[in-house]
Amino acid sequence: MATLWREFYALLGAIAGSPIPIVAALTGHAPAGGTVLAIFCDWRIMAEGDYRIGLNEVQVGIPVPPVILSGLRRLVGLRLAERMAVGGGLFSPPEALDLGLVDELVALEQVVERAVEWCQRLLALPPDAMSNTRRLARADLAAVFEADLEPELQRVIAGWWSPETQATLRALAERLGKKTG
């Protein structure tokens, strides 16, 4: 689990500091980690339909880590991020759009095509002007990963193994097992 969290943080840092624009093309449900990855992207395009997105970590007994909360705050604002993270809700595509959690909704079969179009449009701009402005605009997000995150990671890992988290996860697995069985 420690390796997983360290690698996940490294991936988030790579997305946040990427020299090229990254679009999240959400073609289905994107709870928890799926939402986290999208938060750190430049743009989020989600399929219309009966899908859910959100940080449901608290519902399953996992405290939302500070790095993730920081990204959510940057995306949707302080008060809304607090409400979304603490409540652990999952949202429909229209709700996610209204909250600012995603930037665009399109039909499922158009998600990837639209994501590529968005990137191509950005990359068609004068490259130095676009890249330098983008780097400045995302500097706060990239800076989150310049700090020593090891103490945070230690707390996140310890939280994962806490009795409350493990009991909640076991109960969830049991409920899910009954639904599929």
Could you give the topology of this structure?
Blueprint: H1 2-16, E1 23-26, E2 30-31, H2 33-39, E3 43-47, E4 53-54, H3 66-76, H4 78-87, H5 93-99, E5 104-106, H6 111-123, H7 127-137, H8 139-143, H9 150-160, H10 163-180
Write structural notes for this entry.
It is a single chain. The protein has a single domain (2-180), classed as 2-enoyl-CoA Hydratase, Chain A, domain 1, CATH 3.90.226. 60% of the residues lie in helices and 9% in strands. It has helices at 2-16, 33-39, 66-76, 78-87, 93-99, 111-123, 127-137, 139-143, 150-160, 163-180, and strands at residues 23-26, 30-31, 43-47, 53-54, 104-106. A 3-stranded parallel beta sheet has the order 1-3-5, sandwiched between helices. A two-stranded parallel sheet has the order 2-4. Helix 3 (66-76) packs across helix 4. The protein is globular and about 55 Å long. The mean pLDDT is 95.
Highest CATH level, the class: Alpha Beta
What do we call the CATH homologous superfamily?
2-enoyl-CoA Hydratase, Chain A, domain 1
Overall average residue pLDDT:
95
* Helix-strand string: HEEHEEHHHEHHHHH
Question: Cα-atom Rg, whole angstroms?
Answer: 17 Å
Count of β-strands: 5
Tell me the β content: 5-15%
Strand order within the widest beta sheet: 1-3-5
What is the end-to-end distance?
Answer: 28 Å
Concise description?
The protein has 181 residues and is mainly α.
